[in-house]
Design brief:
- The protein is of the alpha/beta class.
- The protein has a single domain, classed as Vaccinia Virus protein VP39 (Rossmann fold, 3-Layer(aba) Sandwich), CATH 3.40.50.150.
- The chain is built from 9 helices and 11 strands.
- A 7-stranded mixed beta sheet has the order 7-4-3-8-9-11-10, sandwiched between helices. A two-stranded antiparallel ribbon has the order 1-2.
- β5 and β6 form a beta hairpin.
- Bound molecules: S-adenosylmethionine (SAM).
- The site of S-adenosylmethionine (SAM) has 18 residues, from loops.
Length: about 250
């Protein structure tokens, strides 16, 4: 693995994110986006029901056997999925990579520093709640881009990501990096809405058979494919929600 370029409050940086890049990245907006993500990923503790459970249900049956492996989540946000994997595989090394320092800082508070975090959902009628989280020893976090992962070739036994692929500036490069770091025979699990931000990504990746062609071109073989994973993202206490129709796929490096 590459050495980090710098550290900020315990988070290693593998990408030299500039002040302008910080400013332009909506995922660095602490109160608006990071608090919202924190509320969503603690929804089951706060008001019952976990909105991302359909992601876990899809992924579950494809997890590897055994322990003492390398697991990587890319675009881990506030870290709920990779923290769960780290607990499930206590003898494994689990990395959560994200491009947002603020997301990683929050993930670190939740899952590594074991801090009590106050979440303010008052603007959605959800009030304030405080959550005491955990100190998971086999979980590591780092700032890097999906398109330039700091891991060596053929080192990961499982790579996962959710709600990332359609956010990437270079989705093809991101998938190629996921392929590069996986060991032969190891799997990539992806759940993503098809809600691309750029016209050229709609051309490259839509409809979804173009994604499967791209995956095969990169060198993957398709193991599972599901086009209708529905994730309902709660918006407020009244029960309004955003409904995401997601594509889920599992592919293996051959
Ligand atoms: C919509 S959020 C999803 C977070 C989490 N995976 C989930 O399902 O809730 C997208 C995340 O991807 C991260 N991200 C965006 N572009 C990225 C990139 N090029 N490399 C790594 N992470 C990226 C963002 O910082 C953000 O945390």
């Amino acid at each position: 693995m590459r050495q980090p370029i710098s550290h900020r409050k315990g988070i290693p940086f593998y990408y030299p994110k500039s002040a302008l890049e910080f400013q332009q990245d909506m995922y660095e907006r602490y109160d608006e986006i990071v608090t919202r993500q924190s509320l969503l990923h603690n929804a089951d503790l706060l008001w019952g029901g976990y909105p991302f459970q359909p992601v876990f249900d899809f992924a579950e049956r494809h997890y590897p056997q055994g322990d003492n492996i390398n697991i990587l989540e890319i675009g881990c946000g506030v870290g709920r999925w990779i923290a769960g994997l780290a607990k499930r595989y206590p003898d494994s090394t689990c990395w959560g990579i994200d491009y947002s320092y603020q997301m990683l800082k929050r993930a670190n508070e939740f899952w590594i520093a074991g801090k009590e975090v106050v979440l303010d959902g008052s603007d959605r009628g959800l009030g304030q709640s405080s959550i005491q989280r955990e100190q998971i020893e086999n979980l590591k976090l780092g700032l890097a881009k999906a398109e330039d992962l700091p891991f060596d070739d053929n080192t990961q036994n499982l790579v996962v990501n959710s709600f990332l692929l359609d956010r990437l500036e270079e989705p093809r490069k991101g998938l190629e990096e996921m392929y590069r770091v996986l060991q032969v025979g190891a799997r990539l699990i992806v759940v993503t809405p098809l809600n691309f931000k750029r016209a050229q990504h709609w051309e490259l990746l839509y409809p979804s058979h173009k994604i499967s062609e791209l995956l095969k071109e990169i060198g993957f073989t398709i193991v599972d494919w599901q086009e209708d994973i529905h994730v309902n993202e709660p918006l407020d206490r009244h029960g309004n929600y955003l409904s995401w129709k997601c594509l889920g796929f599992v592919v293996e490096k051959i």
